């Protein structure tokens, strides 16, 4: 398609035997990654479906539960993830231009931001643990009922909100952990100079995955933290 | 197969837009707009997601129609799941 | 082609390397296909063993062979093993793995290592499932309905759920591999309009793998979480809605029926033109019908829930939508029939299975329309009518297609011919045994015999005895091919490159094929199923 594909005619060390050329190999990887992300949409989709149905049915409990989560931690985490998406996008760009050091720095920055996200998430979960808001036998949302008597909170419906909160943020965090593993791998091989303008597919694919996890959070933030923050009448 | 290299300035602009939208969505949540609150929150989230997909994930610049088809199909299938389930719940009461 | 004589000594994917390591670490799609063949056969016989125990218990009206609880476990594990560990991977993971790269002229699937990973995930899930079976099993029914599965059952729901969860990722990765391969790895000249119809149906199946399977994965994960942490998402005593589980479950599990039937339709679309010596009638209609089934299949799931308490309006819409699936299915049946019209038909074994498929699938499909009809469904829900209906689709349809495909491509896979007369006999036994087993169940169901009970009123006994008798005949029909396939590996006639004088790229390479399928990348200049251009060699016509 463009200048570099001419050079590919000769033996490419990164070309796997069953592909005809690097272009075909890259296109295959890219399509594969996008298809994988499509399955991820449906994977989270099942939970979004449950969320929508119960939010409609138990709006008061969802609103009160949402108020009890620390909006600042959620907002800061949104900022952290958006920043990490920028470092990833710039990282792919650095790989495309063959700037090895810049690529390594940006990947490490991404890793730091990813770990920061998980740390903040941990603080948030720990708060919920202290408040007995973790679903299960020890679940107790009487503090929420007392705080919002006008909403007539049903304890078991409140538990459904927190079940979904933990399932959604938990599986999102699991995806972050996998992403961090992926980026450790990419950092290692970027440091070794494995990626450059001719071959940066792994960086690009890792980037797609990271951006996807960011997008899931972009939806989780308003759906979990911002259900109803307006002053109660 | 060298790809289109997007200027760093555009990335930073998109990043800024995402930051501003985050502040806006958090701020709007504290203002009483009635049922519009949810709609605004979801609209802003979707705008942010579209920016990430088009620019950060390069969908705007790819010559490959298939990528777009995959994205659209996935969203469409999610829509089937949500719409048809909600149709049932919308026409009866839970429990 | 005159290359038959040298084919015994040349290097192929089977003799390229020896030893267990060369199999367990292989990335060759053909070897992985054989790994799957071996493992799904094991699960087929485990699931079949449970089926026979079920039929034995139902021989008499009294619950005298096993306890009620044991019976619950038998039909649960029969269903789970047959659906998730045999039917869903059956054609895609064996014939699909073997044929997809060869049919499009590629050296391998796009991601060979991921393909091997798929098999290991399958084995991991399967091992977990077998462990669950051996340590007491599950009793929820294959559907895992809540709150039985989350609040009441004392059996291995968590383990079985995780087994199917893991197995789901095997399916997803297989589907992903197929879609990428079909889009990116086609040989020069192999345009979409020249693709074999088996590829089209595998492509449609892969769409369901990719977009349906993740939903059941998350659903079962939520069931596991609910059992472990008492979440209450599906538990009505805690405000949860059991119907939500059913919505999410059937969003995948109804399209999963098309995962089973579409590949079998693909097999039939290959067999019918070959043994009619005619181009397929309405190529693009058949191809588009595959995609149509895959898409419309996602719009109909709640017809499994008509009596479960969904809203009447939703039930009406889902009933209407369910009828739509009949359209592409009927298009296929009409086109196969039209292909045979004025064709030079030979009654070879694969064709016998194709005949069986078309007839039994038609019965299964039409009785499906009974069940899609809102009023009639109320009468037959959870009766043996439903059991008979889906066994006509899954066993009469999918398993017939699978066996037909195994016979059709066995010469390519092994390089040897199976004994034709034994093949025809087995096909006949399967057909008779199948109908004797399942046709009485339509009548039983219509008369009101409910599913999932280990005893029944005495007036149902005659039909039940027929059904049990049929199941033993069916078992013989399934064991026979396994015996003569193994026999043929050593004693079968050398097959040659193209024993059926079939079209398709897979027949233009030696049998068994070399490791990279083709000595040089083929260039396709002809349309699919150009049987008018393929003369029938004398030794083939003598067989008729």
Question: What does this molecule look like?
Answer:
The complex is a heterotrimer of chains A (233), B (95) and C (544). By secondary structure, chain A is mainly alpha-helical. Chain A has eight helices and no strands. The longest helix of chain A has 37 residues, at 155-191. Mean pLDDT of chain A is 93; it is low at 1-10. Chain B has 95 residues and is an all-alpha fold. In chain B, 33% of the residues are buried. Chain C is an all-alpha fold and 544 residues long. In chain C, α3 (68-104) crosses α8 and α14 (420-447) runs antiparallel to α15. The chains are: A mainly alpha (233), B mainly alpha (95), C mainly alpha (544).
Biggest sheet layout of chain A: none
Q: In percent, how helical is the residue content of chain A?
A: over 70%
**What proportion strand of chain B?**
under 5%
Which protein chains make the most extensive interface, counting residues with beta carbons within 8 Å of the other chain's beta carbons? A-B, 59 and 52 residues
Low-confidence stretches of chain A: 1-10
Large-scale geometry of chain B = flat
Q: Please give the radius of gyration of chain B in angstroms.
A: 18 Å
Could you list the spans of chain B in which at least 5 consecutive residues all have pLDDT below 50?
none
Instruction: Please identify the oligomeric state.
Output: heterotrimer
Task: Please give the structural blueprint.
The complex is a heterotrimer of chains A (about 230), B (about 100) and C (about 550).
Chain A: H1 4-7, H2 22-57, H3 59-68, H4 71-96, H5 100-130, H6 142-147, H7 155-191, H8 201-225
Helix pairs in contact in A: 2-3, 2-7, 2-8, 3-7, 4-5, 4-8, 5-7, 7-8
Chain B: H1 8-28, H2 36-56, H3 65-90
Helix pairs in contact in B: 1-2
Chain C: H1 20-24, H2 29-57, H3 68-104, H4 112-134, H5 148-152, H6 157-184, H7 197-229, H8 242-276, H9 283-296, H10 312-340, H11 349-372, H12 374-380, H13 384-414, H14 420-447, H15 461-491, H16 538-542
Helix pairs in contact in C: 2-3, 2-4, 2-15, 3-6, 3-7, 3-8, 3-13, 4-6, 6-7, 7-8, 7-9, 8-9, 8-10, 8-11, 8-13, 9-10, 10-11, 11-13, 11-14, 13-14, 14-15
Summarize the structure.
The complex is a heterotrimer of chains A (233), B (95) and C (544). The radius of gyration of chain A is 22 Å and the shape is elongated.
For the structure shown, list the relevant keywords:
heterotrimer; A: about 230 residues; mainly alpha; about 75% helix; about 0% strand; elongated; C: about 550 residues; 16 helices; about 65% helix; globular
């Amino acid at each position: 398609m463009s200048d570099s594909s001419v050079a590919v005619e000769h033996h490419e060390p990164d070309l796997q035997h069953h592909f005809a050329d690097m272009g075909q190999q890259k296109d295959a990887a890219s399509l594969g990654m996008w298809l994988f992300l499509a399955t991820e949409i449906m994977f989270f989709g099942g939970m979004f479906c449950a969320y929508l149905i119960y939010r409609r049915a138990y709006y008061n409990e969802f609103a009160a539960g949402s108020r009890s989560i620390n909006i600042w931690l959620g907002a800061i985490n949104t900022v952290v993830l958006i920043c990490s998406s920028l470092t990833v996008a710039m990282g792919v760009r650095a790989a495309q231009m063959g700037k090895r050091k810049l690529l390594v720095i940006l990947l490490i920055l991404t890793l730091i931001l990813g770990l920061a996200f998980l740390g903040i998430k941990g603080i948030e979960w720990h708060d919920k643990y202290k408040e007995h808001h973790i679903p299960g036998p020890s679940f107790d949302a009487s503090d929420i009922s007392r705080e919002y008597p006008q909403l007539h909170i049903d304890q078991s419906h409140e538990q459904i909100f927190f079940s979904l909160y933990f399932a959604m943020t938990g599986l999102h965090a699991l995806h972050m952990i996998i992403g961090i593993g992926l980026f450790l791998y990419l950092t290692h091989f970027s440091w070794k100079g494995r990626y450059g303008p001719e071959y940066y597919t792994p960086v690009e694919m890792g980037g797609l995955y990271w951006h996807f996890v960011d997008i899931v959070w972009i939806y989780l933030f308003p759906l979990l933290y911002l259900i109803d923050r307006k002053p109660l009448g | 197969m060298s790809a289109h290299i997007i200027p760093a300035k555009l990335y930073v602009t998109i990043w800024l837009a995402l930051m501003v939208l985050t502040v806006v969505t958090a701020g709007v949540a504290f203002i009483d707009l009635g049922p519009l609150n949810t709609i605004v929150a979801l609209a802003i989230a979707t705008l942010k997601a579209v920016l990430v997909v088009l620019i950060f994930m390069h969908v705007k610049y790819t010559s490959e129609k298939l990528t777009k088809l995959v994205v659209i199909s996935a969203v469409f299938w999610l829509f089937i799941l949500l719409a048809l389930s909600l149709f049932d719940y919308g026409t009866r009461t839970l429990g | 082609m005159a290359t038959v004589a040298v084919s015994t000594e040349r290097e192929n994917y089977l003799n390229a390397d020896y030893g267990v390591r060369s199999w367990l670490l292989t990335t060759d799609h053909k070897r992985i296909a054989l790994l799957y063949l071996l493992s799904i056969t094991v699960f087929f016989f485990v699931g079949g063993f449970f089926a026979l125990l079920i039929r034995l218990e139902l021989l008499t009206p009294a619950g005298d062979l096993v306890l009620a609880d044991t019976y619950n476990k038998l039909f649960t594990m029969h269903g789970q093993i047959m659906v998730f560990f045999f039917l869903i991977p059956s054609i895609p993971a064996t014939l699909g793995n073997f044929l997809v790269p060869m049919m499009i002229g590629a050296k391998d699937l796009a991601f060979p290592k991921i393909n091997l990973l798929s098999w290991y995930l399958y084995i991991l899930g399967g091992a977990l499932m077998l462990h669950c079976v051996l340590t007491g099993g599950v009793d929820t029914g294959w559907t895992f309905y809540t709150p039985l599965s989350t609040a009441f059952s004392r059996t291995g729901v968590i383990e079985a759920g995780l087994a199917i969860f893991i197995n789901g990722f095997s399916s997803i990765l297989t589907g992903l591999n197929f879609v990428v391969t079909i889009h990116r790895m086609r040989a020069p000249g192999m345009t979409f309009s020249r693709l074999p119809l088996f590829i089209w149906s595998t492509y449609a199946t892969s769409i369901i793998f990719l977009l349906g399977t993740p939903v059941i994965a998350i659903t079962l994960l939520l069931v596991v979480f609910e059992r472990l942490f008492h979440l209450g998402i599906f538990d009505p005593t805690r405000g949860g809605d059991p119907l939500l589980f059913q919505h999410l479950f059937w969003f995948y599990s109804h399209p999963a029926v098309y995962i089973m039937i579409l590949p079998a339709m693909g097999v039939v679309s290959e067999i019918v033109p070959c043994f009619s010596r005619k181009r397929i009638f309405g190529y693009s209609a058949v191809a588009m019908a595959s995609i149509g089934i895959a898409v419309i299949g996602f719009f109909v799931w709640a017809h499994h829930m008509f009596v479960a308490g969904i809203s009447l309006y939703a039930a009406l819409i889902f009933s209407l939508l369910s009828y739509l699936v009949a359209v592409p299915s009927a298009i296929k049946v009409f086109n196969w029939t039209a292909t045979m019209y004025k064709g030079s038909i030979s009654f070879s074994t694969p064709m016998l299975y194709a005949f069986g498929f078309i007839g039994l699938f038609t019965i299964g499909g039409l009785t499906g329309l009974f069940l899609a009809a809102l009023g009639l469904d109320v009468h037959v829900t959870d009766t043996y009518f439903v059991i008979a209906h889906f066994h006509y689709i899954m066993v009469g349809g999918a398993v017939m297609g699978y066996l037909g495909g195994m016979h059709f491509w066995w010469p390519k896979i092994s390089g040897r011919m199976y004994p034709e007369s034994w093949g025809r006999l087995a096909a006949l036994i399967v057909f008779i045994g199948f109908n004797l087993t399942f046709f009485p169940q339509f009548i039983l169901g219509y008369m009101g015999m409910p599913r999932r009970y280990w005893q029944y009123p005495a007036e149902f006994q005659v039909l039940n005895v027929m059904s049990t008798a049929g199941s033993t005949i069916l078992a013989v029909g399934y064991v026979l091919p396994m015996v003569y396939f193994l026999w043929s590996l050593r004693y079968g006639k050398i097959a040659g490159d193209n024993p059926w004088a079939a079209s398709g790229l897979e027949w233009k390479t030696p049998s068994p094929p070399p490791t990279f399928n083709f000595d040089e990348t083929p260039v396709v200049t002809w349309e699919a199923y150009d049987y008018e251009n393929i003369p029938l060699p004398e030794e083939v016509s003598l067989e008729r």
